[in-house]
Amino acid sequence: MSTGEAPPDGGTDTDDVLDELFAVIESRKAELPEDSYTASLFTHEKGENAVLEKLGEESTELLLAAKDDDREELAHEAADLVYHLLVLLAMKEMDVADLRAELAERR
Ligand SMILES: N=c1c2ncn([C@@H]3O[C@H](COP(=O)(O)OP(=O)(O)OP(=O)(O)O)[C@@H](O)[C@H]3O)c2ncn1[C@@H]1O[C@H](COP(=O)(O)O)[C@@H](O)[C@H]1O
């Protein structure tokens, strides 16, 4: 998703990466392109269990990376986990804003 260029507001190009990713997920959900992994999660024969299973797998992979003190792998698995979490939120008609709001309430 990175353009490699700084946005005009002077921020970094990762500032809105969660919002951008969530927008792509919503668009895959609406359009269901055949070659999309995201779309395949929305149409999977296992239903929501497909993404729930992936969240379980990615959590385990994250724990193993943490135990190995492998920071590169930890970042990779954390990104896999967050991506699947956002797919789950979209599946449940929720928004990344719901996650932000919940976190903000805890400040
Ligand atoms: N962020 C992701 C993303 N993170 C993980 N994945 C997929 O989630 C799956 C993870 O399952 P596994 O861990 O079993 O995968 P793996 O093949 O063992 O590989 P690893 O990731 O564990 O190394 C892989 O198929 C990844 O490709 C993702 N697929 C898509 N996205 C984003 O979604 C956008 C739309 O993608 P499509 O739906 O494919 O068009 C992309 O541009 C990305 O921004």
What report would you give on this structure?
By secondary structure, this protein is mainly α. It has a single domain, classed as MazG-like (Helix Hairpins). It has five helices and no strands. It has helices at 17-31, 37-42, 49-67, 71-91, 96-105. Helix 1 crosses helix 4 (71-91) and helix 3 (49-67) runs antiparallel to helix 4 (71-91). It starts with 16 loop residues before the first helix and ends with a helix. The model is unreliable at 1-6 (pLDDT under 50). The site of phosphoribosyl ATP has 10 residues, from helix 1, helix 2 and helix 4.
Number of helices: 5
Q: Mind telling me which CATH architecture this is? A: Orthogonal Bundle
Q: Could you tell me the mean pLDDT? A: 90
Biggest β-sheet: count, sense, barrel?
none
Radius of gyration from CA coordinates: 15 Å
**Ligand kinds:** phosphoribosyl ATP
Q: State the order of secondary-structure elements, H for helix, E for strand.
A: HHHHH
Query: What portion of the residues fall into strands of 2 or more residues?
Result: under 5%
| CATH class annotation | Mainly Alpha
Family: Belongs to the PRA-PH family.
Subcellular location: Cytoplasm
Keywords: Amino-acid biosynthesis, ATP-binding, Cytoplasm, Histidine biosynthesis, Hydrolase, Nucleotide-binding
Enzyme class: hydrolase
